[in-house]
Amino acid sequence: MGKVAAAIKVMPNSPEIDLDELQEKLEQSLPEGAKINGFEREEVAFGLVALLPTVLVPDEAGGTEAVEEAFSELDEVESVSVENVGRI
């Protein structure tokens, strides 16, 4: 079974959120078998910055759903969307 790399856009619910702390929480919330392979940051508007982790997940049914759910459950997260997916 192979792996899939997914670029996921995580929008914090406020510009006051500590992004370094949110990154740690995202890493800790990952389901088994998933791994973050780096973060990027994207300025959105009015001081709001989105986190763009690249997540490696096993290539199986459900794909990134478990990761999206785990990220969405964090209090600091407003929304989660998959930007790009590709096999590695």
Structural class, by secondary structure, is: alpha+beta
How many structurally independent domains?
1
Give the name of the CATH superfamily.
Answer: Ribosomal protein S6/Translation elongation factor EF1B
Strand arrangement, largest sheet? 2-3-1-4
* Nearest-integer average pLDDT: 93
**Subunit organisation of the chains:** single chain
Query: How many helices in DSSP terms?
Result: 2
Helix content: 10-25%
Coarse morphology: globular
CATH class: Alpha Beta
Order of helices and strands: EHEEHE
Short description:
This protein has two helices and four strands, in the order βαββαβ. The chain has 88 residues and is an alpha+beta fold.
Describe the structure.
- The protein has 88 residues and is an alpha+beta fold.
- It has one domain: Ribosomal protein S6/Translation elongation factor EF1B (Alpha-Beta Plaits, 2-Layer Sandwich), CATH 3.30.70.
- It has two helices and four strands; from the N terminus they run E-H-E-E-H-E.
- It has helices at 19-29, 65-72; strands spanning 3-12, 35-45, 48-58, 77-87.
- Strands 2-3-1-4 form a four-stranded antiparallel sheet, with helices on one face.
- A hairpin with a 2-residue loop joins strand 2 (35-45) and strand 3 (48-58).
- The longest helix has 11 residues, at 19-29.
- The protein starts with a strand and ends with a strand.
- The model has no long low-confidence stretch (mean pLDDT 93).
